[in-house]
Amino acid sequence: MSPEQNGHRPEQHRAASPSAAGRQVLDGLHAANAPLDAAAVAERLGVHVTTARFHLDRLADAGLARRRTGSEPRRGRPRILYTPTGPERDEESREQLIHVLAGALAAEDTAGTESVDAGRRWADSFEPFTDADPASGVVGVLDRLGFDPDIHERQIRLRACPFRDAAREHPQVVCAVHRGLIEQLLEPTGTRARLVPFAEPDLCLVTLEPAGAAAPR
User: Which of 187, 193, 196, 198 is deepest in the core (most CB within 10 A)?
Assistant: First the structure.
């Protein structure tokens, strides 16, 4: 009987059983509050960068980590950053809870100020960015939360939303929470952000303005 016939896909087996070294690398990704490249992982674990890159690629191939290209300009090969993938959740129960909470808050928070404040408090649960590029830091958090962000220059495209259905029904709550989250994450860096919910039917946009630039309109 093949693995598929037995109900187990090979990649699922690999994802559930990383090597001891791979587990150490994965634990390092989970402990970080921002994406890491192979050099950063190597420094944290005291291994050669080639060894770190090998285990990072194995984790990515197994679905335990995601790869993306860094946004900062540099000569030569682009910087490859890695973030851990999140655990599976009971989507139906979570969506029901989100709808109930968003509906209750919408009745009280007509101006959205409490929702923005809630997002700011959420951001405080993350450690301050250590990356020199604030965009990479906020993209890393958004990626771990399930927003599937894609950054180009100063614009972040949020191609997914773990709360999309609730956001469509109660944007004054859900989108305001996300706005507060992003603003608070960036506040220590002086970078400002403007969130445009549903700029396209299934896409939200975040425009970044570095410290010292005119406020985004």
Answer: 193
